[in-house]
Every structure is written in C-alpha cells, then in structure tokens.
Amino acid sequence: MSFPYITDILNAVLGTHWALPIPTFGVVVTAAIAIATSVARLEVRRKEAVGQLPESTHVLVGDLAVVCAIAGLVGARVFHIVDYSAQFVADPAAMIFSRAGFSIYGGLFFGVAAGVVFLKRRGVPIAPMLDATAPSMMLGYAVGRLGCQLAGDGDWGIASDMALKPGWLPDWLWAQTYSGNILGAVIPDPGVYPTPIYESVAALVLFGVLRALRSEKQRPAYLFSVYLLVAGFERLLVEKIRINLRHDWVGVGLTQAEVISILFVLAGLLGVLLTLRGRKLWRTLLALGVVTALSACVPL
Q1: Higher pLDDT pick, 105 / 209
Q2: What pLDDT does 294 receive?
C-alpha cells in the first residue's frame, strides 16, 4: 500500500476522508533534511571543541543545509533528465514539472558543490566540514528513502522471485505491489522488491559505521572518503534488483547510478588510502575497490 499524500496516511490510521495536497515524499524529505542538519550541527560543535573547525561554525549549518537542499533538488531533476533525455525532448514540461523522477546522485553532486562554494566564501575549511557532515548525509538518505517507500515513487525493484524468499522473512519485505502509488502504476502480483526499505536499513547501518569511525587521529577528508566508498558500494548492490534505464558503456550495459557508484567507490578508496595514518590495510582496500567495480558488470 502506498500513501502519496500525508492525508492518505491519516485516513488509513484514523478512518477519516481528508484530501489535502500535501505530498508524503516532500514531508519526509523535509524531515530528513531537518534531522540531518541537527546531527551535522552537533558534529560540527564537536569539531569546534577539538580545534578542527573555527568557533561558531555550527551557526552556519542551517544556512548550509538550505543551500545544499535547493541545489540538490535542482541537481536531482537535472540528472534524471540526462538519464531520460529522449523523453525530455519529446515532452520537456512533463519531465520538468513531474512529481516523480529525481536522482539521488544528482542531488548529492549539486548539493555538495553548492555547499563547498558556500563554505569557501565564508572561509570555513572544506575537508573537516565534509567529515562532519558525512554521517548526517547517510542518515538523511536513510530517512529520505522512507519517503520513496511510502509514496511509491517508482524507486522499487524488479519483479520478486518468491521461490528465493527465506521462510522466516515476511512477504512484505520481499514483494510489494505499491497499490495506490503516486505514479498510478499497476504492479502485478506477487509484486516487486521494496528496495527503498533495503536502502533505508543499509543507510542506517552505515550511519552507525561512520559515527563509530569518527576520530581526531584521522587526517581531514578520511571520513568523507569512507562515506563515498560505502555509499557507492551500497548503491551498486541494490542496483542489481532495481528497475533503471541501462546505457551502453563501452559494450557494458550499466545504469547511470552504477557508473557513478563505481566512481564513488574508486574515489573513496583513493581518499582512504591517501588519508590513512597506517597503510597496513591498503591491499585489502584495493581488493575491495576492484571487486566492487567489477560487481557492476556481473549479472544478478
């Protein structure tokens, strides 16, 4: 069951019949931004206390979040249009003003770029701020994906293979039809993989990992590099069971997200290697990067 609007949730819980055009996805994303901003502000305060960021930097976090959110919204739509350029040429207005069709990577690229410009103009060190915000970005992603799940915005997976479902796992965690979804799509039984749930759970776990890895002993940009590494790896895995447009990349069929995920993994791996105090794990990290990159080319 999907709930495109907040009143759909209230009606299901309270038995009412309200009809207000308040999109569930928008409300959840707003909540995700607010939660991520609060967590980031606390981490910035911590870095101020240990001398890694100038005093009062935390005052800028709210404005930074607004700048990144606006730029991210634009970037998310731009990347989606690039991915579906043929449909955009056929009907530009429909693509621009659609309630669906946002690329998380587009939002991340534009948001981070806008944030860097914002911080530079205010003389705030970039690398420590990237480290400070990395866990909160992962937490925001975990919350935001719940909006995709509730609204049924099309970010679901391929048709579920019920024969592969573990007996202990509830059916709703393996297959959903997203009835009443905001796209009006009809999904036949048994349904599709609810990938937004998988990503929310994975992102929440990775948020915990990033929080546990915080340390003043690491060089600046280490934690953000780890963020890139694990975020790319997580998306590569889930892309195996998601519905997305595939492009021909030098003879290999990959989605836009898979290509960007591979770049994230490689960039994160390089960043970790350059910022590690001890280099004893470099072979393990290098092997992880190679395996991750190759995994994008292996069929499910």
Answers
A1: 209
A2: 55
Are 267 and 285 in contact by the 8 Å Cβ rule? The answer is no
Cβ-in-10-Å burial (0-12, 13-18, 19+) of 202 comes to buried
Q: For 259-262, which contacts have Cβ atoms below 8 Å and span 24 or more sequence positions?
A: 259/296, 260/105, 260/232, 260/235, 261/231, 261/232, 261/233, 261/235, 261/236, 261/296, 262/232, 262/236, 262/292, 262/293, 262/296
- At 299 the pLDDT is 46
Q: Are 59 and 44 contacting, i.e. CB atoms less than 8 angstroms apart?
A: no
Q: What's the pTM value of the predicted model, to 2 decimals?
A: 0.89
Task: Say how far apart CA 30 and CA 208 lie, in whole Å.
Answer: 22
State how far the Cα of 130 lies from the Cα of 227, in Å rounded to an integer: 10
Output the average pLDDT for the chain.
Answer: 88
pLDDT tens, residue by residue, 35-61: 999 999 999 999 999 999 999 999 999
61, 75, 71: which is closest to 114 by C-alpha?
A: 71
**E strand map for the chain:** 246-249, 252-255
Other Cβ atoms less than 10 A from the Cβ of 209: the count is 13
